[in-house]
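Exercise 3.2. Students should predict the tertiary structure of the chain below and write it as structure tokens, then compare their answer with the key that follows.

Predict this chain's 3D structure.
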Amino acid sequence: MRQTIDLLKAHNEIKIITEPLDVELEIPHLAYLEVKRKESKALLFVNPIDKANKISYETPVLMNLFGSFSRVQLLIGDTKEIAQEVAGFLKLKPPKSIKEALGFLPKMLNLRFLAPKISKEKGLCQEVIHRGTEVNLAEIPILKTWSEDGGRFITMGQCYTQSLDGNVRNLGMYRLQVYDKNHLGLHWQIHKDSVCLLEEYQKANKKMPVSIAIGGDPLYTWCATAPMPYGLFELMLYGFIRKSRAKMVRCVSNELCVPYDADFVIEGFVEPGVMRDEGRFGDHNGFYTPIEPYPVLEVSAITHKKNPIYLATVVGKPPLEDKYLGFPTERIFLPLLQTTTPNLIDYYMPENGVFHNLILASIHSRFPRVAQQSMHAFWGVGQMSFVKHAIFVGEDAPRLQSAEIVPYILNRFAVENCLVSEGVCDALDHASPNFAEGGKLGLDCTRALEVENPLELLNETQLRGILNEALSASGEVRNVRQIYPETKNPIVLVGLDKKESLKKSFLALEQAYLGSLSYDLKSNAESSCAFVESCTESLVQNIQKMQESLRIVIIVDARKNDLENLYLLLWRVVNNIDVKRDMKIIGKILLLDACDKDARDGYHREWPKETDCSREVLERLEKLGLLKEFGDLDKFYRAFAIDKSYC
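Answer key:
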């Protein structure tokens, strides 16, 4: 890790913070702000302290290591070249000549680097060894990120496990809560490979060895996040990328192996059946996850270098370090995804969609319903199965990361091309009515629309009038904004002071629409129809006007959302909706309820709080002169909803 710091210094990619800062909130808050700054740098805190317990740590804390595309390339390599090499291996065919065979030879020789090498010597990570009563997690500058976190958490730990017979080795990254000097909570979500391995030990009633490595070559940390298929050891990627076998050593208190040059290693065992409440924790989706029972690691040894560096990250509202850490994953695994989705050209996971909540994909639209075929392929493969909302565009689409992609999509959107399904959800998803399962939405935007009757665009005053009446059963419309009016399907954003469930308004609108289909108010004003009993004449007129003027309506809580801040609006909308419950199609209009939910909406789980910085800590950092490079702080805080005052 110290070599990494020297590399960052040589490229002007790191800032040294000498001011003593608290591991509780102060260090994480500064890193949280830094990653959102243009030209952000890695931060090395050389004087971390624990104010409450009057501790000054000798170990520096390194944060925002992967917080820019330039640093990712510096630390991991050229992701485009790596992806091309992966694609080349997947397309290998038997050679037809000696010349072709000789051309394949260098590629085949590179495969010798995949298997890690186990050293018989002590590792650099074992220069200092603590066992038994000497074990004390409090001696490591582990951070508390958010005010309402359940404690301190290790956030960049490489978690090494293996199957009961030792044939399957796994490397993952999970948050780890510190309970006391020798116990950690393991946030092993139900879908993770580590849980599959734990079940083997539980059935055999044997304790499971677990080792947590921190630091070392930064590529280890990225490998821990890679979505490798079950049974393939993630450190194989290290050898593939570095063209050098990962060097590992055996742990001192269990049978696992860890990287030779890790800065810290925390070893121990998980007793079968032992669970303990873990959380709360402000997670990467920008919300606190609830308190739930998870396995417990009893620490048997802590080893480290003589001069270690403690590596950590901070998660919360986007953009975050995982924006950059996820980029090589997106690029390198594209060739693998194309093997299961053969018409796939490219895909993009916007950081404000927090990866599993939104994905854009371009495909070869070769035959009818190819987009629907691709949707099902995505939802049936590995971690792609957690994706809630997928939008598919054709080969003529602009670059998926460009601003032009939104008008392209809106000019091809139609309610009849929406596919609503259901399946597994990420365990962190809070919008679904049930844990780890919920609705999914796929949009086929591969074909241009032929619109017979263009929309009659209304100004915002007119929009507010018809929407206030349309949603009156659920609350009062506070503000309205129409965006992309030049497209065939403009979006109308509605800030609602919600009083009741939007189901009431949606039901009334649906009844009015059904009535309007069989009842012409202008020509047959005295007719008596069943729908008149359930809706007013003005509501019927209103829904008719809406059909002429609206196509996509997104309703959000007025008190929490700035309709001018589209970046954070997208973040809240895709986080807060479950399409099976919150999407309503009435005629040609799609309505989305992206407000907070409670029992009135049929939601009986705990709706989470958002991650907000402590205003007191922010003011303290400002007084210390650590925020001078952020410019207009009020503008910066508002842009990223840094604390509660910017709701």
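Discussion points: Residues 502-518 form the longest helix (17 residues). Residues 525-532 have pLDDT under 50 and may be disordered.
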